[in-house]
Amino acid sequence: MSLISCDRFDNDKCTSVYLIRHAEKVRTNINEEDPLLNKRGLLRAEKWSEIFRKIEIDKILSTDTKRTISTVIPTSEEKKVKIELYRPKEITYESFLEENKGKKVLIVGHSNTIPETTNILIKNKSYSQIEDNNNSNLYFVNICDGIISHELLFYPMEGQMTKDSI
What we know:
Blueprint: E1 14-21, H1 39-52, E2 59-62, H2 66-79, E3 83-85, H3 93-99, E4 104-109, H4 113-122, E5 137-144, E6 147-154
Parallel strand pairs: 1-4, 2-3, 2-4
Antiparallel strand pairs: 1-5, 5-6
């Protein structure tokens, strides 16, 4: 499957959604409710921008936290697409899909919201909460003429263990 497009169908009928968890955050103060990204997280934010470089993105959604917004700033700046804030619990997914039909949307969230959102989009409970030390998952959902396909990709940082080696 290609992350770039759904070439077998008319693009105006296809919706592609890319979902990522925020990059690594500062963990020095366990009471900090809205931490910044740490150095590794800033590097990962740049890596996500590289990954999305060849992919057309029409809309970027982020929860309203420093770590999610900072994760997607490099992609937003490169694509010249404004970051729109959202609250996962307040989205009606039928409306979301209708409003974004034919678009490519990047969603940035958290270890619990990204798999949950993916499951809602694919109408199946395929994905569980992301482990706390995993900021490498990219969930891809493609909906073309009512046909839903999805895939989970893993993009480790250089020197990071892969899922197969864990």
